[in-house]
Structure formats: C-alpha cells, structure tokens
C-alpha cells in the first residue's frame, strides 16, 4: 500500500510540473504596431550572435532567444507589399512553401493556414527542417501585415528539445497581436 501512495504522489508531481506554464511578458515591436508575449527568460540576442546565426546581408529586425540559445523568435521585414485579403495570403503562403521546397527539399510539412487579425490577413506555416549542422529544427512562421508590408515572425527550436518548447512556441506565436 505505501508503494501505491508513492507512485500516486510521483504521478501528481509529474502532472503538476507538466502543467507549469512559463511566465510571459508583453514586448512591443515595430513602433508598437505588433505585440507578443515572450517568456521572461527570453532576451534580445546580441549583435555578435545574430551575425553568426543569421545571414549578415539581411539579419532579422528583432531576435529573442531562450537561456540556452537553442530557441529563437525572430522578426524580419520582407519589404514585400502585404496581401489585402486571405486569398492573397494563401497565394503568398503557397509561393513561399514552393520556394522553401525547392531550396530545402528535406522539409517535413506540418501544415499551413490563414486567419484574420485586426482586419488583416495572417498566414501560418509549420514545418521541420535540417539546420546547416544537421540538427532537426521545428519552425513556426507567421506572415504578418505590418504597415502594409509582410513581416515574418519565426519561432524555431531543436526538435530534440521540442516537446515542451513547441507548446510554448505555439502559445507565444498565437499571442502575436497586430495593432492599428
């Protein structure tokens, strides 16, 4: 009987730890046109780290990373005119998906979708990819209309640590708000 109690307590403790959600704080971007709720331990990535991890010719506008630096959320202005409606966003998603498939044929697609926020279309792409150092990476991309230009918000983490992180990443990415 004491063993059952120990097993029960361990299961309760494990369940409680699994239900723990990160503490989030609001961050404003693009002159307060976009807000996102980021985990407290996410900090802006240093310019030196951005230069190593991203193309120096077109680095993201904002990059936040977790303590271990294996989880990143980046925002990049594509300087492309944003679609006016969901049909245009679907076309943009299909074009981007086609381009990614040509340049990265080993992608594993999880899904794509569109929605509307503040009267503007939002696109979402979700997939797994290989990093240059052959690590499997989980990616969630949101295509946002910010000041009539497409801004790409990208969550990425190594798949080896993805289970808990993907749930947090989905929560964080879903918290993105477009302000008028």
Outline the structure in words:
The chain has 180 residues and is an alpha+beta fold. It has one domain (2-178): Mog1/PsbP, alpha/beta/alpha sandwich (Protein Transport Mog1p, Chain A, 3-Layer(aba) Sandwich). It contains four helices and ten strands; from the N terminus they run αβββαββαββββαβ. It has helices spanning 2-19, 47-53, 86-103, 162-174; strands at 24-29, 34-39, 43-44, 62-65, 71-81, 108-117, 120-130, 136-146, 149-158, 177-178. The strands form two sheets. Strands 3-4-5-9-8-7-6 form a seven-stranded antiparallel beta sheet. Strands 1-2-10 form a three-stranded antiparallel beta sheet. Strand 8 (136-146) and strand 9 (149-158) form a beta hairpin. The chain starts with a helix and ends with a strand.
Q: Roughly what fraction of the amino acids lie in strands?
A: 35-45%
Q: Total strand count, please? A: 10
Number of helices: 4
Give the C-alpha Rg: 18 Å
Structural domain count: 1
State the separation between the terminal residues, measured CA to CA. 61 Å
CATH architecture: 3-Layer(aba) Sandwich
Query: Order of strands in the sheet with the most strands?
Result: 3-4-5-9-8-7-6
Could you estimate the helical fraction of the residues in percent?
A: 25-40%
């Amino acid at each position: 009987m004491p063993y059952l109690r120990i097993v029960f307590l361990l299961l309760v403790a494990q369940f409680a730890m699994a239900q723990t959600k990160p503490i989030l704080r609001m961050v404003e971007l693009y002159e307060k046109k976009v807000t996102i709720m980021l985990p407290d331990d996410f900090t802006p990535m240093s310019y030196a780290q951005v230069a190593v991890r991203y193309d120096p010719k077109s680095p993201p506008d904002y990059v936040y990373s977790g303590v271990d630096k294996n989880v990143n959320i980046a925002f990049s202005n594509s300087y492309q005119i944003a679609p006016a409606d969901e049909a245009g966003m679907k076309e943009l998603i299909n074009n981007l998906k086609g381009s990614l498939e040509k340049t990265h044929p080993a992608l594993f697609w999880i899904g794509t979708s569109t929605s509307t926020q503040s009267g503007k279309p939002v696109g979402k792409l979700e997939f797994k990819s290989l990093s240059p150092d052959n690590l499997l990476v989980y990616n969630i991309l949101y295509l946002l209309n910010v000041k009539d230009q497409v801004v790409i918000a990208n969550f990425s983490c190594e798949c080896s640590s993805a289970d808990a992180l993907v749930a947090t990443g989905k929560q964080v990415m879903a918290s993105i708000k477009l302000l008028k």
